[in-house]
Amino acid sequence: MAGRPGPRDRIVRSGVRHLREHGADGMALRSVVADADAPWGSFTHYFPSGKDQLLTEAVTWSGQFAVHQVGDYLARSRKPDPQGLVDAVFSWWIADLERDGVTSGCPVAGTVADGQLAGVVREACRVALTDWQDAIRLALREMHVPPARARECATMLIAALEGALVLARAEGSTEPLRAVRRQLRRLFAAPA
User: Fold this and answer.
1) Is the dihedral of CA 87, 70, 152, 162 positive or negative?
2) Cβ–Cβ under 8 Å, residues 82 and 143
3) Which one of 48, 56, 118, 140 is least enclosed by Cβ atoms within 10 Å?
4) pLDDT per residue as tens digits for the range 174-187
């Protein structure tokens, strides 16, 4: 049984939560550390480059989580298919938003959307989104989707999800996610 994560991991995860709720510009470091139940000194110890380092690590963690989500679908599905992948991705977000009252969004999108980013943070966002897109594309290829279509469908899934998340937060409802999921299921079921 794994123990409680250490202060560094707790701060990164708290940073992810704050990015989801407040974006990069609205993320207050002292609140992140307090919510992580960590002493302020642990922030300055583990993140000597400050907020940019935390943003980079939180975005990286988020990208890895999204990639893992795709892999998890492939691992637990008896017969993975494109529509099932759409369902898996959207179902996770719908359940998550319903748990938190539809008050949070994607931490990577929240970071990209805010202000001027340091080069290292912008690069971490690019890598996180590229890795997620590649994971979806490769999963679709395993399902025998032709390469060009797999690439376009991966782009469409992420772009549609991110837009639906913005609408869901604005409306305070997961209905935009459900509507986009229905349309993507139809699109992914169409022949190449």
Assistant:
1) positive
2) yes
3) 48
4) 999 999 999 999 99
Q: Contact at 8 Å (CB) between 14 and 33?
A: yes
Residues contacting 86, CB < 8 A, separation 6+: 157, 181, 184, 185, 188
pTM beyond 0.85? yes
The DSSP-derived string for 51-111 is: HHHHHHHHHHHHHHHHHHHHHHHHHH-SS--HHHHHHHHHHHHHHHHHHHTS----HHHHH
Per residue in 31-82, pLDDT (tens digit) is 999 999 999 999 999 999 999 999 999 999 999 999 999 999 999 999 999 9
d(C-alpha 30, C-alpha 10), whole Å: 13
